[in-house]
Amino acid sequence: MNYRLTLAYDGTDFEGWQRQREGRTVQAALEQALGRLAGGAAVRVAGAGRTDAGVHALGQVASFELTRRWEPPRLLRALNALLPEDVRALELSAVPSDFHARRSAISKHYRYTLDTQPVQSPLRRRYAAHAAGPLELRALRAAAAAFVGRRDFASLQSAGGSVKTTVRCVSRCDATLLDGTLSVDVEADGFLRKMVRSMVGGLLAVGHGTWSVEALHAALERRDRRGWPAPAEARGLTLLCVVYPPEARV
Fold first, then answer.
1. Count H helices, E strands: the chain?
2. Beta-carbon neighbour count of residue 77 at 10 Å?
3. How far apart are alpha carbons 118 and 90 in whole angstroms?
4. Where in the chain do CATH 3.30.70.660 domains reside?
5. Is 52 a catalytic residue?
6. Where are the alpha helices (H) located in the chain, listed in sequence order?
7. Which residues make up the CATH 3.30.70.580 domain(s) of the chain?
8. Distance between CA atoms of 243 and 193, rounded to whole angstroms?
9. How far apart are CA 14 and CA 99, in angstroms?
10. Pairing mode of beta strands 107-115, 129-130
């Protein structure tokens, strides 16, 4: 049976989603729990997005196969009994055999949260980045609009990615500033490694006045990562949801 799972996790203490030889990862934690439920058999899990170390998720989607048929509500309860406290299975359903969490997805929605208060509350330190100082909202929004559309985002790709093309289609990039909190919402058909964090790095350079919107446009066109500001830190980034075509919904 093929299953689709929606899960949330606090990425602070994980080395990212993807299983590694060393270090604690979300994929490994999930596969370990499923392996116990499968009687010790190896279970391989595919994730919709390979979130980096320190990145969170409220709507990550995973798919996996089990040889034994489980009723979804019972499997969901059993999973949560075995998963660590910083990972929770939210929804689970049986899906057609051709469903794949990553390949079947048509878009993903990330949100970056930045605290701009002079002193950050310790209660926000795990889920919001911090950069004190005023930001020019009009400039931020003009810069955000520059990312929308289908284009080559090579300037935003960090080292370590392995993709056939750096062309992506960004359908939404919105910046809102309210009560000392900057929120950047980005939706696209796919993302390069650290792409959203690099987008925020460029937005902050414009918002703080060290870059102009024209300079950001020019840096995008150069398609050279060396000419782009450093990515924003990981803790402010959350994968909110993954979108699938109607025929993939259950």
1. 5, 10
2. 12
3. 36
4. 107-242
5. yes
6. 26-37, 72-82, 137-145, 195-207, 213-222
7. 2-104
8. 19
9. 27
10. parallel
- In the predicted model, what is the mean pLDDT of the chain? 94
Written out in words, the top-level CATH class of the domain with range 2-104 is: alpha beta
Stretch 56-85: mean pLDDT, rounded? 97
pLDDT surpassing 80 at residue 13? yes
User: Residue 197: how many CB atoms within 10 A of its CB?
Assistant: 23
Q: What is the pLDDT of residues 85-117, one digit of tens each?
A: 999 999 999 999 999 999 999 999 999 999 999
From 13, 52, 86, 152, active-site residue: 52
Asked if residues 95 and 3 have their Cβ atoms less than 8 Å apart, the reply is yes
pLDDT score at 71: 96
- Given a contact cutoff of 8 angstroms between Cβ atoms, the answer to whether 88 and 8 are in contact is yes
CATH topology assigned to domain 107-242: Alpha-Beta Plaits (3.30.70)
| pLDDT, tens digit, 9 for 90 and up, residues 154-206 | 999 987 666 889 999 999 999 999 999 999 999 999 999 999 999 999 999 99
- Is 100 strand, coil or helix? coil
What is the longest distance spanned by two Cα atoms in the chain? 58
The model's pTM is 0.94
